[in-house]
Amino acid sequence: MYCSRPVKVNFILYLYILFLGESVIVVPPGKFLALVYPARAEFLLFKVKSAIKAGDGKIEYGPIPNYPVLNGGTTTDKWTLTAEGVAGLENVRGNVDRYIFWSERKDKIYEYDMEVKPTVLKNVPYYPSDSPESFFQNVALSPQDDLGTFSRIDIVQLPKCITEFMTFNPTNLNLRTFISIEYVEYNVEQVKDEDVARSAILSGAVIPKQLPLFASDSYVDREVIERLYDGVMFDVSLLESLYTKESHLESQPFLMNLYGATDGSNTTGVFELSSDIFDGTVNSIVIPKGYKAKIWKIEVDGEPCTVSINVVKGTTSSTIKTVTLSSPGTVSKEYQTRPVVVESQSSTTPTAISLAWTQSVAAESTVSMEIEIAKQ
Asked: Where does 254-374 sit in CATH, by number?
């Protein structure tokens, strides 16, 4: 016998997908903004009076606060989007932590789409601060886990709340971090009458947004819902007619240009690789579990040299491609239609890619490789 899932569960799942996968869709003035509190299966409703951006609403925020470089295999402490060091935000007052989206006004709500780069970094939210909001089977997840993390996320910021994050670098690279943000500032008026709410929903004037509150939070319930908004919320089942389709947000691919050189004194060796996206050099690129490495291009320049692309699993190494420069000059191989793909499926035995050289006479040669780390 077929039994459909309750609408309430379906709609919250739909909004969870939006939470992890929907860029800022601006609610225009005159329309209504529904903020769903999934742990309570209820929503706040507001009429939008204005939607304001500075310019295009984009903030090139800069590195993760206190972590301009995040070392391979390490996790940040909790961090938040402060105004420190961001040109144009020097005079933002905010709260004691100078959180740039802080407000104590019940008629002001911020929404922002944030991408943490490189997109291979794994992040989890805390909303409000100290309250984890990534769960599976009622167990809070960490950025080191194989699920529940994001590289890009949409946050609707309630007044009197701070959102914090933690970030894990699953690679062996000391990655340089960067955050991009797109935001909108809403001036709103709360809707408290259920008949008005029903009418707005039936007219198609309501746009739902997900609050990252997958567990009930006593601070939000007391300070925001009860004191600011008089405890007026509506059952999420009223929004059933807005349950239409799933929407996914795609992060930018994590692309690297890697560079290496022979040492000029040995006829064989493994290249030490560098890039403008991480600090120092490495002799292999570890592929995080669940990811693929896609090699799009490799170029060898200088004296005659054969470069091999090797897959390293534990103590085992195998060659999957070779590129040979037979005479002084340059040779380039591009794989634009069918990249060389290496998958990693185990966290106990890491999969890595290395580049090695072989020469008949030791000489100076260089190699460059364009590689993408992606889940697809």
From this structure: 2.60.120.40
